[in-house]
Amino acid sequence: MSNRIGFYICHCGVNIAGKVRVEEVAEFIRGLPNVVVSRDYKFMCSDPGQEMIEKDIKAHHLNRVVVASCSPRLHEKTFQGACQRAGLNPFFFQMASVREQVSWVTLDPDEATRKAKTLAAAAVQRVNHHQRLFARNVKVHPDVLVVGGGIAGMQAALDIAESGHKVYLVERETTIGGHMLQFDKTFPTLDCAACIGTPKMVSVGQNPNIKLLTYSEVKEISGYIGNYKVKVLRKPRYVKEGVCTGCGECANACPVLRPSEWEEGLSARKAIYRSFPQAVPITFAIEKKDRAPCVLACPAGVNVQGYVQLIRQGKYTEAVKLIMQKLPLPGVLGRVCPHPCEAQCRRLDVDEAVAIRDLKRFAVDQVNFRELPVPPIEERKEKVAVIGSGPAGLTVAYDLRLKGYGVTLFEALPELGGMLRVGIPDYRLPRDVLDREIDYLLRHGIDAKTNQSLGRDFTIEDLRKQGYQAVFLAVGAHQSLQANVAGEKDYAGVLDAVGFLRDVNLGRGRKPGDRVLIIGGGNVAIDAARVAKRMGCREVTVVYRRTREEMPAYPEEIEGAISEGVQIHYLTAPVRVVGEDGKVTGFECMRTELGEPDASGRRRPVPVEGSEFVIPCDAIIPAIGQKPDLSFAASGGGLKVSRWGTVEANPYTMQTHLPYVFAAGDMVTGPATVIEAVAAGHKASEAIHRYLQGEDLRLFAEEKRLQPPPGQDWEPVPSDVRKQARARTSHVTPEERTASFVEVDQGFSEADAKAEAGRCLNCGVCCECMECVRVCEAKAVDHTMKPEVLEFPVGTIIVATGYDVMDPSPMKQFGYGQYQNVYTSLEFERINNATGPTGGQILIRDKDGKFTKPPESVAIIHCVGSRDENFHQYCSRVCCMYALKYGHLIRDKVGHHVKIYDYYIDMRCFGKGYEEFYRRCQEEGITFIRGKPAEVTDRALTPDEEGKLIVIGEDTLLGKRYRKPVDMVILCAAMEARQDAAEMGRVFGINVGADGFFLEEHPKLGPLNTATDGVFLAGACQSPKDIPDSVAQASGAAAKALALASRGQVDISPTISWIDPDVCSGCQTCIKLCPYSAIEFDERKGVSVVNEALCKGCGSCAGFCPSGAAQVRHFNEKQVFAELDGIMDTIAAIGV
User: Fold this and answer.
1) Which three-class secondary structure state does DSSP give residue 95?
2) pLDDT score for 636
3) DSSP character for 458?
4) Buried b (16+ CB within 10 A) or exposed e, 861-900
């Protein structure tokens, strides 16, 4: 049977008929094939218009209908409904847009009429190929998701919850309330924002039908109207909700200060915080970033940021306890550590690194180790022997003893400490510092045996027989390397550096001579030189083959040596020892110059021919390196020695080829730093513990090897950080210190230490000092919390994500960020608020940034970033009103003597009570000046402008220029879309307009709807609006969601994709393209299949399918090509 088509064209008043000759179009279509009826009507969407269509369908047995009117987006469903009521399948309907696409965009009536005929004919051609389709009826899940906890989100959630439906309210911040709760008063009634907002917040928190998910973000939404699946990421608060009492003791104890986002950066908060006293929930939250770079740079993993912040608070004992979690010798490392942490300090981006090592030393020196408590230890039965009491050995002994193992230290020297005791002079590391820290370690129950040498007094096998289940070797590198120069062994007076320093440190050292020469450029060489000075040597000379830049000794030690009179010959290589009568009389050297880099990366010294010379001396001390004494390894029963003369051990577990024997420190790596030895000790102790517990260390090593690199998500270095010189420690004068072994570096004063600690940028925010854990009586703080992903179904979604206040910094002319007393509107709200940084007093800041006194004059500038072609062309709607509010409040709080200048472009008093408030402000004496100022500056031209901000511009009503000196400037900054609006739009499947705000379905007929069915908008996420409008829209969105929920079911459009299995080649291109993950691959049949529940009918698959298998129902190729044919045929018939 042939089709019977009815055609109807709407006048739309004069919207269409004003340009298109509609009667002529109707007459033209009447002549097309299969057209049975062709009519025009004034308002086709009206009841009479729809009745006309329904009657014609029944009377003329129409089986296709075409309407030419406005856009399908506006009234397609209206006309489909009319067809359905008349018994015609609604998908046998086609609509031609002759208003938006013709009459509104075409000036010439003839051209408009031709275009209308063309589009109408195309629709008629197309409708011939329409197929019978049926909407799917699906159940609607009764639960609702509300995204955003501002005033709109809270209102929508409460409306829905009060109807008995469950609501998931998701808020990305730690509290609900939004911007409104940051305000002081609301316009125009001047009600307290907190007084209005707090009851709503409490109601939301207490309503059993509202599941409140704060500090959470929606990450994924799938499904369709009535049946959405939501995936929410709950960020860890590190404080347990329901357990935290909100007492605030944790914040009092926290040492980390951060700019408060709630206070717009005008005051500080702690790393553990609650945004404001009335926050819902009352639970505190901890802000964490990745571990600070200084912590990551420390080989031992010491919590640098934590102890620095505790020092800033004056909590020295707590700081030392925190240090000792990773460092058993804090005072030692506070003096001799090369501080690699400081090289990574991000304070270097501002001025100088924080003096981390010196701060550690200061804190340790404030603590009496005799009074430092020993933690309780739960004993284990296993025993471990630790051979060597240097930094690696002491670390392993300490770690394992804390785990409860029986630990015995074996030391070959008469005193404990290893190289710390005999290799570092007293002027760098006083004996009492080392003694107090070793004594504290021994108080933990560590046994110690001195004068016990491995290989001489006992063997590893002996220890095994004595019941030690594991042995740790850390014998150090106590043998000096020879200089390998002629005459080195031929003359008396050639000493080895390590032996020389050992004898001096053990109290048996002697003056080596009057004129001493040291060969080498490392720390041992410099130590030997400075010790020789203190032993009374008249001349001390150091020879080094390279320049000072390549010298491996610590720079401060080189400086110290030079200041004490040590002479250093750079670019000087040793040749031979010169002697007479069996004694040293001099040392022959030759000059060098630097060539290409060698294996170490340093430039190779190249001898200069003919440059030999002799330095007179009577003692020579080679200090070119050390090696471990591994004579015991010959009888070690399985220990392997590398070709470098060190013990071989697994780099991740420090396990040797003997399973129960572990080794670390200089005997494994060669000479290294104390902190590196401590780090190696930690590795070994963890591996020994696992070994003793029966774990497979191969798996442990592999786990360590595959460990991902640490994250680098740190707080950005603030742009407004003031430069501050690094504090310097005091030093004993060279004259005093060369006369004895008194400690050279005297450390910080308390004031300097606290000031230096205050320079820390807190890159990781929370420093994990655990002070919050210590003071929390409720045991609510849990630093082990992990992110949590929640998944749940909902039927509808309300998006109420709010807005951002524009940062006016790019508008340099207004001085924001440059002048202390130029504020944004939201910053002024916080200054004016009783819980704000000034306690509600309106004050201006001095040059140090401190709020001091009230202003005598204030400028309020409208439209900063709004109605501006360079930023936002739209009006932010609320600025005029809150500007009036500010003027009134300043007069009310500060006094009527205050001069207030209100600079506006147009005063837009569009709401209830707004015009009246404007008149009230005029009567109060506020000066209104039309025209946006050109500049805010502090460049004074007259005495009365000194110390003021000068607002410069033109009064456009009077046509006069002005310069107004004021104390404070308030910028009415634009309301703008959130920075993440586009990203969130992709998650929710909704569009974003040119202004960045979410796009509604239709500005008049669908202001709450979006392009995605079942997703609604509320509040300022859609456009700038004030509080009453946001609340009204929220209630409207709630009503929309409730209407769907109460109906219980909804029809889903059948205009979705399908894939012809007979044509599909199985290339899976469509699967990669689908933005809704609605296409799956059938492995058995080798074809793609559409999941109809997920498909939105966007057509991406159909547009790209290389085989043409993917099609969209109601938009198949026949229909689309028929429409194109209709256009071409009509153009051929009537012309362009």
Assistant:
1) strand
2) 53
3) B
4) bbbbbbbbeebbebbbbbbbbbbbbbbbbbbeebeeebbb
Query: Quick one: DSSP state of residue 454?
Result: B
Look at residue 1078 in the predicted model and tell me its pLDDT. 86
* Structural domains of the chain ordered from first start: 5-133 (3.40.50), 139-235+794-801+985-1048 (3.50.50.60), 293-372+715-727+746-764 (1.10.1060.10), 383-478+629-705 (3.50.50.60), 479-505+518-627 (3.50.50.60), 804-976 (3.50.50.60), 1056-1112 (3.30.70.20)
Q: Which residues touch 382 (CB under 8 Å, ≥6 apart)?
A: 405, 406, 469, 470, 692
CB 692 within 8 A of CB 382: yes
Q: How crowded is residue 999: how many other Cβ atoms within 10 Å of its Cβ?
A: 18
Low pLDDT (below 50) residues in the chain: none
User: What pTM was estimated for this model as a whole?
Assistant: 0.86
Residue 137 has a pLDDT of: 87
The C-alpha atoms of residue 456 and residue 410 are separated, in whole angstroms, by: 12
Output the DSSP codes for 782-819: -TT---EEEEEEESEEEE----EE---TT-GGG-BTTB
Q: In what order do the strands lie in the sheet with 661-663?
A: 447-449, 406-410, 383-387, 470-473, 661-663
What CA–CA distance (Å, rounded) separates 610 from 813? 69
Residue 967 sits at φ, ψ, to 5 deg, of -95, -25
CA–CA separation, 600 vs 566, rounded Å?
Answer: 27
Would you say 398 and 445 are in contact if contact means Cβ atoms under 8 Å apart? no
How many C-beta neighbours within 10 Å does residue 959 have?
Answer: 8
Under DSSP, the state recorded for 367 is S
Burial of 312 (C-beta count, 10 Å sphere; 0-12/13-18/19+): buried
**Which of 333, 313, 314, 338 lies closest to 323 in space, CA to CA?**
333
Predicted confidence (pLDDT) per residue in 315-350, tens digit: 999 999 999 999 999 999 999 999 999 999 999 999
Q: Name all contacts of 497-502 with Cβ < 8 Å and 24+ positions apart.
A: 497/524, 497/525, 497/527, 497/528, 497/621, 497/622, 497/623, 498/422, 498/423, 498/524, 498/626, 500/528, 500/531, 500/621, 501/422, 501/423, 501/424, 501/425, 501/527, 501/528, 501/531, 502/422, 502/423, 502/478
Q: What is residue 1052's predicted lDDT score, i.e. its pLDDT?
A: 85
Residue with tokens 């910094």: 809
Between CA 923 and CA 921 the distance in angstroms is 5
CB burial readout 188-225, b (16+ within 10 A) else e: beeeebbebbbebbebbbebebbbbbbbbbbeebbbbb
CA distance 214 to 174: 5
- Which residues have CB under 8 Å from 230's CB, separation 6+? 145, 168, 218, 220, 221, 791, 792, 793, 794, 797
pLDDT value of position 1136: 67
Say if CB 80 and CB 88 are below 8 A apart. Answer: no
Residue 638 has what pLDDT?
A: 73
Q: What is the pLDDT at residue 389? A: 97
The candidate with the shortest Cα–Cα distance to 566, out of 586, 587, 543, is: 543
258 neighbors 287 (Cβ within 8 angstroms): yes
- The per-residue pLDDT for 635 is 60
CA distance 438 to 464: 26
Torsion, CA 424, CA 430, CA 433, CA 434, rounded to 10: 30
Q: Spell out the residues 6+ positions from residue 269 whose beta carbon is closer than 8 angstroms to its own.
A: 251, 257, 258, 259, 260, 262, 263
Q: What is the pLDDT of residue 1?
A: 55
Residue type, position 668, single letter:
V
> What CA–CA distances, in Å, run from 334 to 105, 713, 813, 1042?
78, 28, 50, 66
Cβ atoms of 222 and 228 within 8 Å: the answer is: yes
pLDDT at res. 922: 95
DSSP states along 117-142: HHHHHHHHHHHTT-----PEEEEPPS
Beta-bridged to residue 996, according to DSSP, are none
Rounded distance, CA 7 to CA 117, Å? 12
End-to-end CA distance of the chain: 34
